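Any chance you could type out a protein's amino acid sequence plus the matching backbone structure tokens because I've never seen that pairing?

——
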Amino acid sequence: MDISVQELLDNMKKYQVVHFATHGHVDFHAPLNSFLQVSPSEKLTLADILGATIGEVDVAVLSSCETNLPADVKILNESVSFPTGLMQGGFLSVISSLWIVNDISTALLMLKLYDLWLRAKIALPNALQAAQIWIRDSTVDEINSFLTNGAPEQIQQEVLEGSALDLLVAILMSNKKKPFEDPKHWAGFSYTGIQ
């Protein structure tokens, strides 16, 4: 289903949490053109966010590549990035990534993040840190157990489907004891916020 940028901006203020699991791109030369791909034909730019009246929204989760990179490194006294743009637009906190992230480990990280934050009621920055430690240290058996018994079924169905599920099964069937211990799988995400 395609959604226009205007529909997205109009509807964001209705929610406490807005989660983007899509492609992100930072334009280092024209920071306001940095975007999140919200549909095949629509891009939500930093200019769109800064030009909108979003109101106060608790959290934006950018489960996308490189969404925490500052766009213009020549500006020494100000960071222009998705987190700063979203916070200026009304979001209280943002979770974003510093580099290109793996779809499977990111999906698992997000599942665990939401499990810890929403079900276990751990504060969001602490839940992110705990989810990162969990994915780093978890064995294949522990991941399988979480997916089978711990993650809410609706989230499992939405996050782990089709080819992503096939790839996850292949990873879990590999001989690697801790398949996501490499920092590239968990260290790229950070929390920016006032909560």
